[in-house]
């Protein structure tokens, strides 16, 4: 029975992996592509969208998104539409590259290391980017949601040689069907079992966890609704804000730009959340 269950989860995992390559948002172009990290011969970039009239000396709120793909693959363009939308609302919006198994032969550990590096680099370069270092949100879908959340909560996973005095913790989290339970009964445990206690966001919630919004479809076969409800409960027990939005009958990845109705529904709630934190310019 256990073997059959593991085989089923493996099939779901592979399906999610290949699905990630079809999530690219067509018809959008980043304003700038900037290297934020280099590991050996691998260069990692931020794909940046600026508000109209943005200047170097501004102090805009910012957000960085991390694509989904099971820590195996995916594309920064998954969140291009979100970035363009938020840039039109006054934020500096970015979609990050990070190392994945298919391209870099890496483990989930390196994904989180890169997530932390991205947030730290953005904060370190705040003046050059024209952003407010105290208003940097992170977002992501599926495994990218785990990367964003782990940047805020996971202990360790720091890239050697970086200035740890500069915080890698985002100030707010936007999580789309996030992989936030990596424990023995959660997603991807067999890949992170040596370090899951430090890696799994749901096991590292604290009084310092940023305000969070979560989007999840009730028909998601990878992320159970009960996990999201538990996450919200644990957040509130720590006195932290967690807005949970459930979408009846929707599957994993329902929020992507290709599904215009769901994209717009979740976009509206994302805007409300960011407005409540003072991240969006009021019309």
From TrEMBL:
Q: Which residues form the BD-FAE-like domain?
A: 55-160
Lineage, top-rank taxon, reads Bacteria
SUPFAM superfamilies (UniProt xref)? alpha/beta-Hydrolases
Q: Which Pfam families match?
A: BD-FAE
Output the InterPro entries linked to this UniProt entry: AB_hydrolase_fold (IPR029058), BD-FAE-like_dom (IPR049492), GDXG_lipolytic_enzyme (IPR050300)
Family note: Belongs to the 'GDXG' lipolytic enzyme family.
What name goes with this protein? Alpha/beta hydrolase fold domain-containing protein
């Amino acid at each position: 029975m256990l073997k059959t269950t593991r085989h089923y989860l493996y099939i779901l995992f592979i399906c999610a992996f290949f699905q990630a390559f079809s999530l690219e948002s067509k018809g959008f172009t980043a304003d700038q592509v900037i290297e934020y990290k280099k590991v050996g011969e691998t260069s990692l970039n931020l794909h940046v969208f600026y508000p109209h009239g943005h200047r170097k000396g501004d102090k805009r709120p910012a957000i960085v998104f991390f694509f989904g793909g099971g820590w195996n693959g995916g594309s920064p363009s998954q969140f291009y539409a979100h970035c363009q939308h938020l840039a039109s609302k006054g934020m500096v919006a970015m979609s990050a590259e990070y190392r994945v198994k298919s391209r870099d032969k890496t483990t989930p550990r390196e994904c989180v290391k890169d997530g932390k590096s991205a947030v730290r680099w953005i904060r370190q370069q705040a003046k050059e980017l024209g952003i407010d270092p105290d208003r940097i949100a992170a977002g992501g879908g599926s495994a990218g949601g785990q990367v964003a959340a782990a940047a805020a909560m996971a202990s360790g996973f720091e890239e050697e040689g970086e200035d740890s005095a500069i915080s890698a913790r985002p100030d707010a989290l936007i999580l789309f069907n996030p992989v936030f339970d990596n424990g023995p009964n959660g997603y991807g445990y067999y890949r992170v079992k040596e370090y899951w206690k430090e890696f799994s966001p749901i096991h590292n919630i604290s009084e310092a966890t940023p305000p969070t919004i979560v989007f999840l479809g009730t028909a998601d076969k990878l992320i159970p609704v009960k996990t999201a409800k538990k996450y919200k409960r644990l957040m509130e027990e720590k006195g932290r804000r967690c807005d949970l939005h459930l979408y009846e009958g929707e599957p994993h990845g329902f929020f992507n730009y290709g599904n215009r109705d769901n994209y717009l529904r979740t976009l509206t709630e994302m805007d409300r959340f960011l407005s409540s934190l003072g991240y969006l310019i009021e019309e």
